[in-house]
Amino acid sequence: MTERRVVVTGYAVITCVGNTVPTLWNSLLEGRCGLGPITRFDTSEYRTRIGGEVKDFDVDKYFSPKEAKRLDRFAQFAIAAAEDALVDAGLPRDLRTSSIACERVGVLVSSGIGGLGTLCEQHSVMRDRGPNRVSPLLIPMMIGDLASGNISMRTGAKGPNMGLVTACATGTHSIGEAGWMIRRDDADVMIAGGVEASLVELGVSGFCSMKAMSQRNDDPQHASRPFDKDRDGFVMSEGGGVLILEELEHAKARGAKIYAELVGYGATGDAYHITSPHPEGDGAARAIMMALRHAKLNPEDLDYVNAHGTSTELNDKYETLALKRALGDYAYKVSISSTKGSTGHCLGAAGGIESIICLKALETGIVPPTINYVTPDPECDLDITPNVPKERKIKTALNINLGFGGHNGALIFKTFVG
Questions:
Q1: Are residues 71 and 187 in the same domain?
Q2: How far is CA 403 from the centre of its chain?
Q3: Where are the alpha helices (DSSP H) in 156-312?
Q4: How many domains does the chain have?
């Protein structure tokens, strides 16, 4: 049986630094940061009062007022990004109007947390007005699988349809697993990625109580500082990133543009701690090596790594160890960056957004910078492309995302060669 190759034919993003891929990319190269004071609720009693709120999201472009009211914000992001990605791939928003076999189009767009905003809102209703006043839409608006479920209903995609949850590795695992669905001939096209909209009272409260977030409330533009010695935690953001994955011959038959090929995917567990990465970078290193093995590549074949780089003390240190463990001495030569200095940490959406950033690096031959890097950390001593972008010939890019629970994901994209 001929190996089924998986290519990327479309993509779309929603972020605090831009709701289109060109806007996001230009923001990264110009070193812009989308973080600022949280405006949607009173944060006066919170340790952390800053975040990456999505701005200028045009709900009316995608939904009627009635439709919007029946969807949590994470599901709105999912539908909007999926439809824009389909259009970018040269496909209609409603696949039922095309010659594409809807039974061969699947959806795996996931959220790490789901409809937390709806849960908070309806809990207040129950507390203040009683259980009989809770909306019958609470459960379908809250559960994370409705990102994919709603996309399926909107677009007519009838193939494999599910959501998965691996915390901050959610988007990465969704893309990787969607790729396998195409490889094993369960689908010809997959709508895949991650979305998140948990920048709400309870979400921020939980992370504040963990003392995981930066408290640079007076300087949000410099609060997320991956790999910098003076980092003091991540900055929570929201958004989404969705890719259209397609079997190569299917894409060629319809004349689709091809951004890159998905050639490697790794997924491992640390079996160590609920929130801390493995102190020797073991699980993350094995995920990288697994992705390299599936891609039939050596460490020296990698040109760019988009690191998880959360700006927390433990992640950045242990991820550096993981890269050294997986790549050996070549870890010091490959170009690395964390773009979370600009976007903040979008949790379950990070893998989708950062995979698209890898695709832009392949397309342009530019390594986006790690901004807000001021004080070198001797424990994070790799080439993290500090503060300014760098031109480099890029044929292969690795995206890494790690999640609470010890979930590790790695994706390798390669310049397409027919």
A1: yes
A2: 12
A3: 170-183, 201-209, 248-253, 282-295
A4: 2
Q: In angstroms, rounded to a whole number, what is the distance separating the alpha carbons of residues 383 and 229?
A: 15
- 278 with 145, same domain: the answer is no
Q: Which of 191, 220, 253 is the last residue of a domain?
A: 253
Cβ atoms of residues 354 and 337 within 8 Å: no
Residue of 345, 346, 358, 380 marked active site: 345
Same domain for 282 and 246, yes or no, is no
pLDDT tens string, the chain, 418 residues long: the values are 688 999 999 999 999 999 999 999 999 999 999 999 999 999 999 999 999 999 999 999 999 999 999 999 999 999 999 999 999 999 999 999 999 999 999 999 999 999 999 999 999 999 999 999 999 999 999 999 999 999 999 999 999 999 999 999 999 999 999 999 999 999 999 999 999 999 999 999 999 999 999 999 999 999 999 999 999 999 999 999 999 999 999 999 999 999 999 999 999 999 999 999 999 999 999 999 999 999 999 999 999 999 999 999 999 999 999 999 999 999 999 999 999 999 999 999 999 999 999 999 999 999 999 999 999 999 999 999 999 999 999 999 999 999 999 999 999 999 999 8
168 classed as catalytic: yes
294 is catalytic: no
Strand-pairing partners, residue 197, are: none
State the catalytic residue, choosing from 173, 250, 278, 308.
Answer: 308
Domain boundary residue, one of 253, 281, 306: 253
pTM: 0.98
Examine the residue annotation and report whether 123 is marked as an active-site residue of this protein.
no
- Residue 205 sits at φ, ψ, to 5 deg, of -60, -45
Catalytic residue among 16, 33, 168, 208: 168
For residue 222, the enclosing domain spans 6-253
Could you tell me if 225 and 366 lie in one domain?
Answer: no
Element (H, E) at 246: strand 239-247
